[in-house]
Amino acid sequence: MNKALTYLKLDQESITAVRGIKAAGVHCGLKKSSRDLALFYSESPAAAAGVFTQNLVQAAPVLLDRERINNPIRAVVVNSGNANACTGEKGMEDARQMADLAAAQLHLPPEQILVCSTGVIGMPLPMDKIAAGIASAAQSLSGERQAGLDAAAAILTTDTVTKTVVYRGDLPSGSFTLAGTAKGAGMICPNMATMLAFIFTDAAISRPLLNSLFREAVDCTFNAITIDGDTSTNDTALILANGAASVEITEGTPECDLFARLLHQVCQELAVMIVSDGEGVTKVITLEVTGAPDAAAARTLARTVLNSPLVKTAFYGEDANWGRILAALGYAGVPFDPSRVDIAIGPVRVACRGGAIPFDEAEAKAVLQQREIKVTVNLNAGTATATAWGTDLSHDYVSINSSYRS
Amino acid sequence: MNKALTYLKLDQESITAVRGIKAAGVHCGLKKSSRDLALFYSESPAAAAGVFTQNLVQAAPVLLDRERINNPIRAVVVNSGNANACTGEKGMEDARQMADLAAAQLHLPPEQILVCSTGVIGMPLPMDKIAAGIASAAQSLSGERQAGLDAAAAILTTDTVTKTVVYRGDLPSGSFTLAGTAKGAGMICPNMATMLAFIFTDAAISRPLLNSLFREAVDCTFNAITIDGDTSTNDTALILANGAASVEITEGTPECDLFARLLHQVCQELAVMIVSDGEGVTKVITLEVTGAPDAAAARTLARTVLNSPLVKTAFYGEDANWGRILAALGYAGVPFDPSRVDIAIGPVRVACRGGAIPFDEAEAKAVLQQREIKVTVNLNAGTATATAWGTDLSHDYVSINSSYRS
């Protein structure tokens, strides 16, 4: 009776495909030549949710956004090239002033504006450049596709490509769009990385439901990727839902399931793009832990393996070194029985019940020579599973991250 | 009235300087050409204590030694080149047989013999070679200096130098010797590293006191070093006290203080040797966390910083990148106030109260160009301190650890 719930990936679109969302990305001189200031604008107040870094050391914009995330939100102003982190009271003033400047340009109350920064740590923001950038971005705001791509470029640091994912959900009551853009967990010379993600939707959804669905999605996607295990002072993922489409998402409905599924999909695709564009990355590892007693244990085990330098260098060397995987599982701090563990690299079983089994080295090598490698660890101790994504550890990673700040 | 308690470092000696301790190191074919089987022998039963890997995946010899560590111990048989890990029931049988073979050669009960292995994971021990090696080692047992050096060589894997430290304590009642040898936490091609340490003393000391002092010493030394944060299936530190010197150590005496101090010193010097000889290491970092609310917090913070790939690559690049140090502190899982943290690299203060301060880049660079670098983090939140030792992360580390197993 109901029309089927369907969805479509819109490969050619940018985040401005979301109704009521405008964007701009300009150059204001924080980076040498590329765009370094982005503005995201919603034509109507949006419900917002945010997931922020767990690091004790939190940059000023993170502290500001935590205060404001429960407000109806109209705009997000983002700069790259300077993280405004470890900048003390002056940093808080500067973050507030960024919002104030955007508020003045957009004729909005400052408390409806969020702020993100990414880049060098410990340096004060050059506020004159920021002010000029915000004025210029406010003037360039547009709902055109290119404006979304400009904003996607302006948030980047050492990323080599922009990262945008757009999906449309089609419901009997109409269609909604979910779109996101992110920047990577590589590092900005000279300091640590920041992962920033901005998701937009024109579906109408209550703030509590949006918050709950976003946390679930982030936990299985952005929080399940690792490049080097270091977390940043600035990591932020935000979602804005402005209700500009005539579609309402309520809990426990098939529409809500579709929304949650597309939200997960957008976050996962952005997360894997971040991993794939990590510094010096030559391999993207998808690690699935199955047969676990619970999902939390599975997740901890998966992330610990993907953070092991010994595992990561083995993948760089295209080495089917299951002993390192087993040993990394062993220090994850999660109880399990090593003598029940099976490990497969692609389709090739390389360890069985915690011990060696004969396998075709050439077949394993062929899998390991691919850029994308699936590894499966079966604990044979339950039914829970978790997937995490990681990278190898290459010579280039060391080169990029050991280069001097100047 | 009492003669002062003094001590002396014996640079030219090996572990056979300890009275009643004999040693041998032979080649039996587990490694291509170098010595690969060591035997340590005490002429009288020794009180023993051991600290073993916390990894859930524990090699067969670790499981065997845990059963036997409370027995009076007469000998330790060690092979390099094969870890006897992830080898199942057969591995346990092989570990027991190693002890049985040594017992037969030395005319001792098998339960007075400990076993250690280090090397490749997941491969069965070639017991014919092991048997020949044990027979040959038993025949070569000697109290000569060279025999101790041969044993020190036979436990190595990818280490580039033997590691031996010998101290003599002089008490009014006589003198005692404390000597140790260790192998490094680098990796053996193709699998993970093992840290093995063997400490010997001719002092007479009860097993409970020895155990307590050894755990304290190990926790502040071998457990405070990190090369890549990966722990092995085989890590083992053993101490044997045979009482062959006419010196008795009892709790709460000045003699006990001297013994504890020398034990700490032997362990610390071996630990720093291990770090310095780590794979691809170009810098040895001594990180002191001061002003902490308690020692456990200080230790966790110090180890987290030294495990951060971003911190390690910055040291490789000789970059005074205090932002990475502060961010690593922030994700250690220990509460502290970032806005009170001071950081110094050598004598150069690079961050104050959680923020940037102007410093002489040339002066910092001069410190960072040294091989040994002292970093101080003051939390300004208490009086507890902890020291940990770590390394940089170099191109060579990646090269060594990505090389294919074959």
Structure, explained:
2 copies of one chain form a homodimer. With 406 residues, chain A is α+β, with helices and mostly antiparallel strands. Chain A folds into 2 domains: 6-276, L-amino peptidase D-ALA esterase/amidase (4-Layer Sandwich), CATH 3.60.70.12; 284-402, ArgJ beta chain, C-terminal domain (Ubiquitin-like (UB roll), Roll). Chain A is 33% helix and 28% strand. Chain A contains 11 helices and 17 strands. Chain A has helices spanning 60-68, 88-106, 127-140, 145-154, 207-220, 254-276, 295-307, 309-316, 322-330, 361-368, 395-402, and strands at residues 6-9, 21-26, 37-52, 73-82, 113-120, 163-171, 174-183, 196-201, 204-205, 236-241, 248-249, 284-292, 342-345, 348-352, 355-356, 372-378, 384-391. In chain A, the strands form 3 sheets. In chain A, strands 1, 2, 3, 4, 5, 6, 7, 8 and 10 form a 9-stranded mixed β-sheet that branches. In chain A, strands 15-14-13-16-12-17 form a 6-stranded mixed β-sheet. Chain A has a two-stranded parallel sheet with strand order 9-11. In chain A, β13 (342-345) and β14 (348-352) form a beta hairpin. Chain A starts with 5 loop residues before the first strand and ends with a helix. Residues 187-192 of chain A have low confidence and may be disordered.
